[in-house]
Amino acid sequence: MEWANDRELNASILRVLPVTEYDQNQWYDNLCRDHSRIVFAVYGVDIDAHIGNCGFYHIDYLHRRAEFWTLIGDKSCWGKGYGKEIVRFMLDYGFDTLNLNRIYLNVRLDHHPAVRLYETTGFQREGILKEQYYIQGKYVDVLVMAALKKDYHAEK
To answer: How would DSSP label each residue in 57-93?
Structure first.
């Protein structure tokens, strides 16, 4: 809940409203019942702590696609390679364990470190959603990116 309400994190993960304790509990309760979502806790071995979360939302087993997201909430862990490790793990898990064909994500167009990370781990730009969100007093463009199973395995 602290991470979701952090102003800097909030903007980077396309969150608009503050999260209350009730909201957090509802999110967790719904997560436990919703089979179209999988969430993992990210553990920083070197600091022996929970540093973030990642997962898939909107898992569609018929069309074999899902939306990927990740959050490193512990800012002391930013820029230390956790993001790349998380993305690679989740692509392997999504393609090889869940048998997904397409993994997609939405990222702020101006969030350059995240865009670079996704591009270096196999995601391709698909399009821009102009003024998709209104965050902290301004409209934000969103980049849609995706990775396909055949391309991912060809690059490995």
So the answer is: EEEETTTTEEEEEEEE--GGGTTSSHHHHHHHHHHHI
What domain range is 117 assigned to? 2-155
What is the CATH number for 98? 3.40.630.30
In the chain, beta strands by DSSP E: 38-44, 49-60, 65-72, 102-108, 124-135, 138-148
Total of domains in the chain: 1
CA dihedral for 129, 104, 82, 48, sign (positive or negative): positive
pTM of the predicted protein model: 0.88
The CA distance from 53 to 17, in Å, is: 19
Is 43 known to be catalytic?
no
Catalytic pick among 82, 104, 118, 152: 118
Tell me, rounded to whole angstroms, the distance of Cα 4 from its chain centroid: 13
Q: Which of the four pLDDT bands, split at 50, 70 and 90, describes residue 116? A: very high
